[in-house]
Amino acid sequence: MDFTGKVALVTGGGNGIGRAACVGFAARGARVVVVDRDGTAAEATAGIIRQNGGEAMAVAADVSKSDDVKAYVKATVDSYGRIDCFFNNAGIEGRVAPTAEYDEAVFDAVLGVNVRGVFLGMRHVLPEMIRQGGGAVVNTASVAGLVGTPGMPAYVASKHAVLGLTKTAAGEVARQGIRVNAVCPGPVDTRMIHSLEAQLSPDDPKAIEARYQASLPTGRYTTVEEIANMVLFLCSDLASNTTGGQFVVDGGRTATGGAVTNIARG
User: Fold this and answer.
1) What is the CATH number of the domain that holds 128?
2) Number of domains in the chain
């Protein structure tokens, strides 16, 4: 997977899966634009890349705001001239609560980042890819986009929507040489899963973690590098006729079912 001479744009690149993807792209020759709402975290990722001999720039942006999205696209094109790979990754988890009790403002916030943010990213990146005659987009969905999870109505709804956006866009731009796919992580060892553990059991989140990992066929959470590797593959020439797909990296969770549901029900 050689990205020499290519430009990779990553949202949510300040930590977790996004940071691992940024570092992975850079290690394989790409110039990387790191976008995150937390500008300090974005700059930290760019700094890691530079320390290892790569080229990167950081942009602070709220992906739910059209002007911010236009700005990170413009910054990328102004600096590097093109966008070859777009990892449309930024997302938030919201709260754990039944649908009948779910806070409306939290619901709107989750959909604002996870759905509107993904839409706006494609809305403003795809014209650049059409102009240059090709590119690859990977949207971050989730196994929550494939199955229901009691207690997470906003997150589940948002990730189902990401899959719909992915499939729609893939069909629209395939003839322009642009591929659009989605990666569907299961539980990944990041801040997000540990936040959910703490919400489910504030007094003993480690007990939730142990029970959750034990319920997975592989017996462990997925690493950020394992998700990033799938993203890199989907953006590479190795996936040259792959578009409109949803690619699960979940340690067998959806193959056997029930892990998230059982935890959400306590």
Assistant:
1) 3.40.50.720
2) 1
Residue 243 CA to residue 234 CA, distance in Å, equals 9
User: Would you please indicate which residues are annotated as catalytic (active-site) residues?
Assistant: 155
Give the largest Cα separation in the chain, rounded. 54
Question: Band of the pLDDT at 194, cuts 50, 70, 90?
Answer: confident
**Mode of pairing for the β-strands spanning 178-185 and 135-140:** parallel
Query: Residue 240 falls within a domain, yes or no?
Result: yes
Residue 27 belongs to domain spanning: 7-188+223-256
Asked if the structure places residue 213 within a domain, the reply is: no
pLDDT at 263 over 90: no
Q: Which of 56, 54, 48 is nearest to 15 (CA)?
A: 48
Q: What would the two tokens of residue 11 be?
A: 């949202």
Percentage of residues in the chain with pLDDT exceeding 70? 97
Structural domain contains residue 247? yes
Residue 103 lies in a domain: yes
Which of the two residues, 5 and 262, has the higher pLDDT score? 5
The one-letter amino acid at 159? K
- Two tokens, residue 57: 């720039």
Q: Which residues of 149-182 are buried (b: 16+ CB within 10 A; e: fewer)?
A: bebbbbbbbbbbbbbebbbebbeebeeeebbbbb
